[in-house]
Design brief:
The protein has about 280 residues and is an all-alpha fold. The chain contains nine helices and no strands.
Length: about 280
């Protein structure tokens, strides 16, 4: 059974996605507890039946920032107890992990398969990471590790370069988008999601998604599609805050359920982009 804190996160995030939430005021402690208990019998609250007692601007602001590059819970195994490695070429100790090059002989090193993407990209283990810093790190690594730079090197160095380049690209693509980033964070914590399952979504939520998809299909002007796109962006922003708060609180099941919602809205966002492309190719 989900914990009370998990239920509150789920119910709060679901309520934030409805315009009626904006008009609600703070609820009494009694109301909060009663409605949280009611949510224990449903994966998500029904439409317009839950009103958060938190200010949307304050959502997640009480959380403490994470400064460590690595997670502080079950995945400490990624950053503790590591064996000191030596350069395969000159045998000198490597100064850090993951080490892309030996500081002594400057030779490229084999990739560390167990290194997390956050370590590879030198990013804080947080859902709201700095994507500009991520992009700079990606460009920096690809410039130094690109296989073209090793065409005149040994076969071993060429192989290491290709492996590094592919790994860096995968790490970048995974961490760049909130959905794949969140799912990867859960994976590191031992929480796996199954593709194509809708077990966490209730009928009211699925009906809302159906209505939005129909609205996209029926959009006759770019302005209509843009309106839906902006609404969807707003919902994704709210979900991002809620997921970040859930992960920081260690409420992994709540984060998993919220990421499932994010997946649906991300699909709608892509559908809106396709619709706008159609308008550009074939103006109404």
């Amino acid at each position: 059974m989900l914990s009370l804190n998990t239920l509150r996160i789920l119910c709060t995030s679901r309520a934030l996605l409805h315009h009626s939430w904006l008009m609600t005021k703070r609820q009494s402690v009694y109301t909060t507890v009663t409605r949280a208990a009611h949510c224990m019998f449903t994966s998500f609250p029904k439409k317009d039946t839950w009103h958060s007692n938190k200010d949307i601007n304050a959502l997640g602001k009480e959380k403490k920032p994470i400064y460590s590059t690595y997670p502080a819970s079950s995945i400490r195994k990624y950053c503790t107890g590591q064996v000191k490695l030596n350069c395969w070429n000159c045998k000198q100790p490597l100064d850090k992990t993951p080490a892309f090059f030996c500081m002594s002989c400057k030779v490229i090193q084999p990739p560390e398969e167990d290194a997390s993407y956050f370590k590879i990209m030198d990013c804080d283990f947080t859902f709201t990471l700095d994507t500009q810093k991520l992009q700079k790190r990606y460009l920096q690594l690809q410039r130094s590790l690109h296989p073209d730079n090793f065409s005149q090197k040994s076969v071993k160095e060429q192989e290491y370069s290709e492996s590094h380049s592919a790994l860096v690209n995968k790490a970048y693509q995974t961490l760049l988008k909130p959905l794949s980033r969140g799912l990867y964070m859960l994976e590191l914590e031992g929480v796996h999601t199954e593709e194509g399952t809708d077990s966490g979504a209730d009928s009211g939520f699925l009906m809302e998604l159906m209505e939005i998809n129909e609205a996209v299909d029926e959009a006759r002007t770019p302005e209509d599609a843009n309106k839906i796109g902006q609404d969807t962006k707003g919902k994704l922003a709210v979900l991002t805050e809620a997921i970040d708060a859930a992960l920081l609180e260690g409420e992994l099941q709540a984060a998993k359920a919220l990421l499932a919602q994010m997946k649906y809205y991300a699909n709608i966002e892509e559908k809106v982009k396709e619709k706008l492309s159609e308008f550009m190719s074939f103006p109404p």
